[in-house]
Design brief:
By secondary structure, the chain is mainly beta. The protein has seven helices and 30 strands.
Length: 390
């Protein structure tokens, strides 16, 4: 049919399919986490949910807790525009989440006015600025359409949900490029801004939007963008075999798998079909079913979207975490880095027991190449003793 429907689904069946426009976002008072069903009626709406009439299912969410000195409060409030004030229970009161600061009145807004975002430039009381940069500093909850009303949070696991002053924030549905990123583990085709010194070679410009659009191979694991060529050097083809990493074998004959190739180097990567049955996630437990036509541009990610909105590739992120843990973040002088590394090594070795210290030390054969005493050759194993210097 031609109607776009939203359905409940699990690994085996789809049910309760209704017109997508008949579903609505809400916050429910109680939810069965195991079954995923919820009830709207109650004094304290705590769970993000999506409802069709009175039937509700739980939405995917972030469980967060504010960092000291901030506290989260669920309260009844009345709102005029974007300004909300805590009120005693009245017929006109609405449900709000409030951020309680030690030095000011609570900052209140309707529940769905808050969103989970990345932030930076936080001050001592936990107030931050929204950040769309790749190298964000903290996780925050922010008022929608506000650059400054952001408050730093810690994300918790569900077993910590019994703690006081925790908040459940609806998790955003994935954008198209995020879905493409999640399908393949390694190599992707990606549009980038480039500088092209010749007609057939281009170089990606990281973080620069003033260039020529080119098409590149993007290594998702390490963030490398290379090689790059003008878009007309690429052709859409059908490949015979592709790996789970996303790369495909270039062949002269056709195949069954949609791919895009750079014939100049005989390399291909997997892409989505141009026309396919869609099962886009409308919410965590509700899926939209229908058909959609995808242009080639819709099936290839844009690096300027990734660099401004998503987390860094895993290896880059792990490296940054290591630099921060070792006290090397922001250090560029080789002498200072070497001194800090030596200091870290001393502290690390001092925390080991004698057995571990011995296991990482030089063996006799590594440390002593020849043994001689009183003009005679001696045995390294029997004549040399080991002393552990702490």
């Amino acid at each position: 049919g031609s109607i776009e429907c939203a359905c409940l689904h699990n690994e085996h069946i789809w049910w309760h399919c209704r017109n997508k426009s008949e579903w609505r976002y809400s916050y429910c008072a109680t939810c069965d986490i195991r079954m995923g069903t919820c009830h709207e009626i109650g004094d304290r709406p705590r769970f993000p949910c999506i409802c069709h009439n009175s039937f509700c299912v739980i939405s995917d969410y972030h469980l967060v807790k504010a960092k000291w000195p901030i506290r989260f409060i669920s309260a009844q409030c009345t709102c005029r525009g974007k300004e909300c004030v805590v009120m005693n229970r009245t017929a006109l009161a609405e449900h709000c989440f409030c951020v309680s600061l030690s030095t000011a009145h609570p900052k209140c807004a309707l529940i769905d006015s808050w969103e989970y975002r990345k932030c930076a430039h936080c001050i001592w009381n936990g107030e931050c600025m929204r950040s769309d940069h790749l190298h964000y500093e903290h996780n925050c909850i922010c008022l929608k359409d506000s650059l400054t009303s952001c408050y730093v949070v810690d994300e918790l696991d569900e077993e910590d949900s019994s703690q006081r002053h925790v908040l459940r924030i609806r998790r955003d549905s994935k954008k198209l490029y995020e879905k493409i990123l999640s399908r393949y583990d390694g190599l992707l085709a990606a549009y980038s801004m480039c500088t092209c010194p010749t007609n057939d070679t281009c170089t990606s410009l990281h973080g620069d939007l003033n260039g020529t659009i080119c098409l590149c191979f993007f290594n998702k694991k390490n963030g490398h963008v290379w090689p790059c060529y003008p878009p007309d050097f690429w052709i859409e083809r059908r490949c015979r075999t592709c790996s789970s990493l996303g790369d495909c074998v270039f062949s002269d004959g056709g195949g069954d798998l949609a791919c895009v190739c750079a014939p100049i180097i005989r390399m291909c990567v997997r892409i989505d079909e141009a026309v396919r049955d869609t099962d886009d996630t409308f919410d965590s437990n509700v899926t939209v079913a229908g058909k959609s036509a995808l242009r080639l541009a819709d099936r290839i990610i844009k690096l300027w979207e990734i660099s401004s909105t998503t987390e860094p590739p895993r290896i880059i992120k792990e490296q940054e975490q290591k630099e921060k843990a070792f006290g090397l973040k922001g250090m560029s002088d080789p002498i200072a880095i070497k001194a800090k590394a030596s200091e870290n090594l001393i502290f690390a070795v001092n925390n080991l027991n004698d057995t571990d210290k011995s296991s990482i030390s030089y063996s006799k054969q590594e440390f002593i190449t020849k043994c001689s005493f009183n003009g005679r050759q001696c045995s390294v194993e029997t004549c040399v003793s080991i002393f552990l210097v702490v």
